[in-house]
Design goal:
globular; binds adenosine monophosphate; single chain; alpha+beta; about 140 residues; 5 strands; HIT family, subunit A; five-stranded antiparallel β-sheet; 3 helices
């Protein structure tokens, strides 16, 4: 059974600007940002601005919005990191490996055979900031054309 949503989870704090993130994209319903412990260079998370623990709590409206943002981010990752293969994954519940209980989709420029360990090593903040900037620039170009 899905657990009760806790307003003090780290992504909820991010949505309230109580903790920082390396923002890649934001709109009315979603936020995309760099994962601080990337499983490959360019690992991004997309979250809804909606209190969902996991897939069971998602509404069609927010699920669609997350997918649309994921699509933008993935297209930008393909360009910035010069690779076609992007892993999209998402865990439902601690038993599945979920550690932050606000629904999120992982977008990882890697392959299922080469993924680094989940949540194991913190990346250099300057590198994350630079990657977020590159992704933001490409998304801005995409929406201008
Ligand atoms: P999951 O196991 O699917 O719940 O994954 C949670 C993800 O959130 C992991 O990949 C973590 O590296 C990532 N994460 C945890 N805290 C932060 C944070 N403050 N900023 C960005 N990513 C985070």
């Amino acid at each position: 059974m899905t657990q009760v949503y806790d307003d003090n989870n780290i992504f909820a704090k991010m949505l309230r600007n109580e903790i920082p993130c390396h923002k890649v994209y934001e709109d009315e319903k979603t936020l995309a940002f760099m994962d601080i412990m990337p499983q490959a260079k360019g690992h991004v998370l997309v979250i809804p601005k909606h209190p969902a623990v996991d897939l069971a709590d998602m509404t069609p409206e927010y699920a669609a919005a997350v997918l649309m943002t994921a699509q933008k981010v993935m297209q930008a990752q393909r360009q910035v990191f010069d690779r076609e293969g992007i892993v999209q994954m998402q865990f439902n519940g601690a038993q599945a490996g979920q550690t932050v209980f606000h629904y999120h989709v992982h977008l990882i420029p890697s392959s299922i055979h080469e993924l680094g360990r989940h949540g194991s090593e913190q990346a250099d903040q300057n590198e994350l900031a630079e990657q977020a900037q590159q992704l933001r620039d490409v998304i801005a170009q995409m929406s201008a054309s």
